[in-house]
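Pasting as-is:
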Amino acid sequence: MKRFFDIICALGILVVAAVPMVIISLMVKLTSRGPVLYWSDRVGKHNCIFKMPKFRSMRIETPAVATHLLYDPDRYLTPIGKFLRKSSLDELPQLFSILNGNMSFVGPRPALFNQDDLIRLRTEKGIHLLKPGLTGWAQINGRDELPIPIKVQYDEYYLKHRSLLLDLKIIFMTFAKVLRREGIQH
């Protein structure tokens, strides 16, 4: 049921977002050098690595680490990078990761391949058995502001309480937070 929901919703959003995605692609290309998409190595279900696309919001020379680990993250942003991140429009290409089965709409956000502390804690709690999501319980309860142990506690809550009703609540709350631009540091 969840997979069917993911496919139908991803296809529907892609139809509606096709023109905005083309415009964003042009804006990224015209305002900075480098590719339109940034493909990062992420940790998926069973700790398998997959390539996750995002519209590129950072300059091409940015180190491949979590944004909060950069000394001065703002200096790496492209001219439209801050807008893409604050509006979460940089996440739209992840709809293709949902379609190909690497991600779901709701689940723990996929860790970067080098976030060893997050990966270890999630594995200890069994969270690695879940498919990562475009949004999740931790996302709506703090997003970028959460320390890793707290994020894992939220992920574990989702693991133990997941249901269609909880997924719908998370999607609705995500939409509200994105509109208010809450919980985004960079």
